[in-house]
Amino acid sequence: xxxxxxxxxxxxxxxxxxxxxxxxxxxxxxxxxxxxxxxxxxxxxxxxxxxxxxxxxxxxxxxxxxxxxxxxxxxxxxxxxxxxxxxxxxxxxxxxxxxxxxxxxxxxxxxxxxxxxxxxxxxxxxxxxxxxxxxxxxxxxxxxxxxxxxxxxxxxxxxxxxxxxxxxxxxxxxxxxxxxxxxxxxxxxxxxxxxxxxxxxxxxxxxxxxxxxxxxxxxxxxxxxxxxxxxxxxxxxxxxxxxxxxxxxxxxxxxxxxxxxxxxxxxxxxxxxxxxxxxxxxxxxxxxxxxxxxxxxxxxxxxxxxxxxxxxxxxxxxxxxxxxxxxxxxxxxxxxxxxxxxxxxxxxxxxxxxxxxxxxxxxxxxxxxxxxxxxxxxxxxxxxxxxxxxxxxxxxxxxxxxxxxxxxxxxxxxxxxxxxxxx
Length: 423
Prior knowledge:
About 50% of the residues lie in helices and about 10% in strands. It is α/β, with parallel strands linked by helices. The longest helix has 16 residues, at about 275-290.
């Protein structure tokens, strides 16, 4: 039986590796280390289908190291110890050829499983490469995280995805036997969601569903075949992020029925309770924010509670929180404000802090004017002093624009009494 297309065309060298130029391009942060074979323990963090496993294999091949692999889904502490024992016999602290231990979905390892890796990583018996779709700050224990470098992989862009398709047509022996024309790619790219593996799986599904050796790929053909065969390319859970997206968009769109439905889909699919609760936390701030500040409190309480009690009871708390968020007034003003502020920082660089706002812990700093003329707000009427808190180059700039909901209208009225020029 043939391997899936994504596996058949998996790159074997850095030269064949598509995308992630910030990591493995000519001036990538990992390129030189791979070439010289001195690899630190690292965590590869990125969405599904962005080449984490492929990159780990290439690193092992290029650096000529023994390569062991475990999946956090079906491996336990015993498996980890057996691999470490093998690794100890093949390398050590004083050689650059110590084995690489690759752990896929490392975020699924428990604390005790991650603890079992610490000694081997610290003593150099293995070079750990972990792959995760989740933020390692939340899912990898601090002791292990401090011993690893974290590298972020980005979702594939349009050019990257099209390059994957054309390379598959050029290199795969099975596809080369057919006359395949890529007339349109928009549907393929959109359905992939930036996931290279998913793209190739859909592409292969469409090709295999056609009779004959002459096939013209069009958007209409792709849509018709995928709609009829969704289960065939989703059986490994690749709709994970699609369903999470539908869940969040239902909350944002104030539809409690949609929110509960997609929540049920995630629960029935065995989704990690913390993954769901974390999305609720994000939605509470990004989509509701100051329109209902209590939403963040409830989402945070839900996160802590479901982490403690787990399934099946956690489903009730998640449902309650999802419905509360869906039926709350909405505002993305805080989300937009920090985005504008970050963009301004990138454009203007490190502007000087105004002297009145600077800290003055030493006599010299005080002599230089640090902190002088600062107006202590509590010494003024209504605890407010008309003072500028932005660098001189940004005086008058407004990042936060209150929404039109009842709560933020009150905030806007408050700001107008203080900052008449801005609001």
